[in-house]
Structure formats: C-alpha cells, structure tokens
Amino acid sequence: METHALSELEGCTLGLIWEMGPCTIYSVRKVLEGSPNPYWSGSAGAVYPLVRRLAEQGLVTSQEAFRGKRRHVNYSITESGLVELRAWIGPPVADYVVAIPADPMRTRVRFFGALDPTTRSELLEVAREQCEREIEIAIQKQDEAKLGQDPFEPLIPLGVGLMARARLTWINEVRRLLDDTD
After folding, report:
1. Long-range contact list for 144-147, CB < 8 A, 24+ apart?
2. Under a CB-based contact definition with an 8 Å cutoff, are residues 164 and 138 in contact?
3. Burial tier of 6 (Cβ tally within 10 Å: 0-12, 13-18, 19+)
4. Which helix (H) or strand (E) holds 73?
C-alpha cells in the first residue's frame, strides 16, 4: 500500500484519534490546545476540516453516537489510517523532524542591537522566568503522566522539560555574554 506524506498536524491528529479513539473532534482539539507546542492549531477552523479530510481519505471512520439526547460523532482510525500513521512516525525520519526548529527567541536575539542594554536585560529576565515556569509545568506533567497506563506519555513532558532547561542555559549564557559587553 502506498502511503502519503502527512503534515505534522495531520499525523498528530491521526495519532490522537488512534490513541483516544473512538473520540470526538472536540476531544482532539482539547489535546492540541493544551500542548506546549505553540505551532499546533487546536482551532475549530483547523481541526474539524482536517479530520473530515482524513475521513474522506479513508484514514478514519465516523460513527454517530448519543450521550443522553445529545448527538455527537466519534472517529476511529482505519487499517489504512494505521498504515499512514506508522509511515508518518517512521523510519525513515525526514531531516526536518530532527532539525533545529524555528526559534522566535533566537531570532529576536539576532536583533538585540536595536535595544538598549536595560531593555535587553529586562527581556532576558522575563524569558528566564518563563523558562523556569515551563520547567516546573513539565515536571508536574511528567509526574502526572507517570501515574497513567501509557509508558510513553511521561516522555513528552520529559522532552519539554529538557528543552526548557536547554533554553534556560542558553538565555543565561546570552545574558552573561551581554553583561560582559554592555
């Protein structure tokens, strides 16, 4: 069976339906909205059409269900959807999957010369505080995930925490280097 290249949002959404299924689009949206990744779109305008496209491609099926008198639609992954999900996960792994991602903070540092030293210092202090909060949240989420049944779930907040720690180390180094030159 020939597979098609899924976008990251398509692959993640298909994976969430596999993991939670049968599930509603609303439940998929809630997971995406709660993600620490600012690039996931949990908006209704992105997720609902995306899941409908996955259904049109035969990657998920839908089934009407009722909770009391409320109608909702549950989605489940199909066999061909599972093939696509596995192909998206890899191997092989595309270069962009492990490449250094876009980094708005790194981009802003490139133009720090446009700021006075006090403003640069204030910005770095705010960024440091936010990184520390992200680390605390990641530790909390990792502890919560360890209580669940999925052995892979704690690995996600572990990755978030390690990335936030690396970011904090970098911010501290930028601050040190700028303090030496300002």
Report:
1. none
2. yes
3. buried
4. strand 70-77
Average pLDDT over residues 29-44: 81
pTM for this model (two decimals)? 0.81
End-to-end CA distance of the chain: 61
Instruction: Report the alpha-carbon angle 170-105-7, nearest 5.
Output: 110
- Cβ count within 10 A of residue 9: 16
Q: Work out the average pLDDT over 58-70.
A: 91
**Number of residues assigned to the chain:** 182
Instruction: Tell me phi and psi for residue 74, to 5 degrees.
Output: -100, 140
Residue 62 phi/psi, 5-degree rounding, is: -120, 150
Query: According to the model, what pLDDT value does residue 2 have?
Result: 64
